[in-house]
Amino acid sequence: MNAQIPPSTLPPEAAGATPVMAQFFEAKARQPDALVFFRMGDFYELFFEDAEKAAAALGITLTARGNHGGAPIPMCGVPVHAAEAYLAKLIRSGFKVAVCEQMEDPAEAKKRGSKSIVRRDVTRVVTPGTLTEDGLLDARGSNRLAAVAVRAGSAAVASVELSTGEVECWAVARENLGSALAALGPSEILVPDRLFADEGLNAALRAAGGLVQPLPQALAEPAAAEARLKRLYGVDTLDGFGTLSGAEISALGLIAAHLETTQAGRVPALTAPRRAGEADVMAIDPATRASLEIERNLSGSREGALLGAIDRTITASGARLLAARLARPLLDPAAIEARLDAIDWFVEHRNPRQRLREALRGLGDMARALSRLALGRGGPRDLGCLRDGLATGEAIAALFAEAPAALEAPPPAELTTAVAALDAARHPRLAEFRRLLAEGLGTDLPLQARDGGFVAPGVRVELDQARALRDDSRRVILALEQQLAADSGVALKIRHNAVLGYFVETTAKAAEPLMTSPLNATFIHRQTLANQVRFTTVELAELDAKIAQAAERALAIELSTFEAWREAARDAAFEIQAAAEGAARLDVAAGLAEWAGDVGATRPILDRSTAFEAEGARHPVVEAAVKRAGDAFTPNDCRLDGAGVAGPRLALVTGPNMAGKSTFLRQNALLAVLAQAGCYVPARRLRLGVVDRLFSRVGAGDDLARGRSTFMAEMVETAAILTQATPRSLVILDEIGRGTATYDGLAIAWACAEALHEVNRCRGLFATHYHELAVLEGRLAHVANLSLKAKEWNGDLIFLHEAGPGPADRSYGVQVAKLAGVPPAVVARARDVLERLEREAGAPAHLDDLPLFAATAPTPERLGPSAVETALGDLDPDSMSPREAMDALYRLKGLMA
Ligand code: ADP
Fold this sequence. Notes:
Elements: H1 19-30, E1 35-40, E2 43-47, H2 48-58, E3 63-68, E4 71-79, H3 83-92, E5 97-102, H4 106-111, E6 120-126, E7 145-151, E8 154-161, E9 166-173, H5 177-184, E10 188-192, H6 193-196, H7 199-207, E11 211-215, H8 222-233, H9 246-262, E12 274-277, E13 283-284, H10 286-292, H11 306-310, H12 316-327, H13 333-348, H14 350-360, H15 366-374, H16 380-401, H17 413-422, H18 428-440, H19 461-488, E14 493-497, E15 501-507, H20 512-515, E16 524-528, E17 532-536, H21 538-571, H22 573-599, E18 605-607, E19 611-617, H23 620-628, E20 636-641, E21 650-654, H24 661-676, E22 685-689, E23 693-697, H25 710-724, E24 730-734, H26 742-760, E25 763-767, H27 776-779, E26 783-793, E27 796-805, H28 813-819, H29 824-841, H30 853-856, H31 867-874, H32 882-895
Parallel strand pairs: 1-5, 7-10, 9-12, 10-11, 13-23, 18-22, 21-25, 21-26, 23-24, 24-25
Antiparallel strand pairs: 1-2, 2-4, 3-4, 5-6, 7-8, 8-9, 14-15, 15-17, 16-17, 19-20, 19-22, 26-27
Helix pairs in contact: 5-7, 8-9, 12-22, 13-22, 14-16, 14-22, 15-16, 16-17, 16-18, 16-22, 17-22, 18-21, 19-21, 25-26, 28-29
The chain binds adenosine-5'-diphosphate.
Residues 622, 626, 633-634, 636, 655, 657-663, 801 line the site of adenosine-5'-diphosphate.
């Protein structure tokens, strides 16, 4: 190959390299920051520094191969058949891997001359965000590649799930890039190097998780990005995608650039970018997401997280869709209602639900199969997955078409559109593709097309002929075997291997007559092994050539058929993706209905007010744990009102340790997430005015990895809440200020509570150890005390886990210490000390004398409408009676107080 490459394209260190090593240097020069997997026969070899790094990361032996520049070349290798596992390990360790394949048969290279070497080329660069192999992916989780860009002050996040082709695009304010990224949870984030240099942004990117990859700024420039994006989609104009902002085009352009390099020119089958803006999705920052354990619990596992508790989906794509919905709860009540309608229908129609779930069990991952096919990595089994999936889709559609009159209520639009997408009969291209595969694709499918045998008989005449020849010849061979044995009187067999082709084999003892006259005229000696001797005959050699040709021809026809089907899959990509998504939507709705039935969840009521009325609510994860332990979970109510008309806006939650404060706080935040994600909620009733931003600062975890103390981390998050929460937000704060000295902590907690009440005016739950804060109830209009009850009985502490009005009477710290197994003598001593302190200290501080926050604070920056404005906004004069209008006026006047 290097004969064709001008030496000037090779790096200087390649001077004097052997032709094969020169090929390596050339591949390496094109992918300098990736490890090069250099295909040599049955191995991928790594050389030089790559070999040293890979050997260390994989724990494999480092050897040497030949010499370069007077020194041995360090080398290590992995067998091709086991490469996937090694690849996975390297990617997880943070490496990129460039796969440099042999592009031709060694025999073909030989045709160019005995010194020619096999052509090789980089066919793919594997990075965390571009994996498509089932073996490297979590079937029920997503694996997204994201990109961020900022242009003219506005920012955007784009993402692609290469394994399914889903593209998303999100226009956000620059300061919300972190939240948007966290919602996507990408495994790789592309960022123009100029932004990468920005400290603040960099921190936000890192908080989102995933490998951050700086790319040259030039790739994000509008003209270049737009051109690349058009190329990626094969379109002349981007108009079909709506009006994309400059930042969106830049971010999508970065993705296009990265796909161009990593996929070595193979174009994936992508959906049009699905777009969202900040007005569409509840903002949840990474800290909140982590602390509420929405998708994963704090130790990173799916069990113990909200998603794990509610996920009853059957299919992998259903599981991924549910995860995506939970990660991005909606703001538009109508869109949420549509999802709830679908669940509702399945709750009401148990029989179709069960039959659907049964049908879904046989459904493969069509989106991932299609994507692999489009990228040239799929095989006959992926086609099989599509064929069977489309058949299942039709069966599901038939299920819904059955006697609609028998059902009390027809399925809602959310379900009928999903069913329609699944029904191949309604989409000509899908129907044609399905017919093609139903007729042509065999039953016993190999993983790789080159293994052959997957095209059904009767589809291609030439194929049937070639196969007949091949198979006939086999029969002829059997006949020949019998004839040779009879004629020679020697027990012999005709066998086959890759080196010799067909040959006659006999034991060493029996071979004697075949090697002597007259039989040696027929039997030509080929090989002598320890116990066997191998021969051929003229007739056998001819047959061998004929069979080999027929097999080769049959395989060539199969491979071209496979290519044609692959093209057909690409042509129907849009419809196949829609069908896969339809199935996922049905699965999610039926799964959530199933869960609702299991745990007694109900349909939430959503509107644009600022109400939060939860009755008999439970924490889905804690409840499951408590039940497993054989106990019952105590449901609790929580009533907040952002307008401060029907209840407090901010509740101060007190109670001893272990009383259930954290559980109570989180459960209310999770109700909002569930409801707005379009799920039923574990409550007797929930009415919720949609929450625009959710904040949670729960529990204290050291963020040592980022060099912050617990207290510092807590203050950073608290600062974010105080600057960003709006009157439509929901904030839960658990014991802020705990990480510092008592008075400091109390002072900070006090000031935060006042600011949330006066400035942010958001709905909030504020759990605290500082009982001193209880006086705020009397001082601030919309603050109320709540406590989780416990009682002492015979010297023991009993937790009732019941939330009720009023502050906790005391903190029972000593009793909790006793419960925890602190030795009795220490507990007794602590009781003494406590009594003494309480007697001597009297009331701890005269906080009642503090002037109100509003009077001392510099005029606070208003972050949103006041209570009066919010209440005004909620009024609908057209639907009010004069009497109601009068009441409303009084209420508004009251708010001014
Ligand atoms: P706190 O924050 O007050 O220390 P937690 O919320 O961590 O308390 O709750 C402690 C434990 O109490 C939980 O792990 C759970 O086992 C139990 N618990 C909490 N709330 C309830 C409830 N409503 N019903 C039953 N058990 C509960």
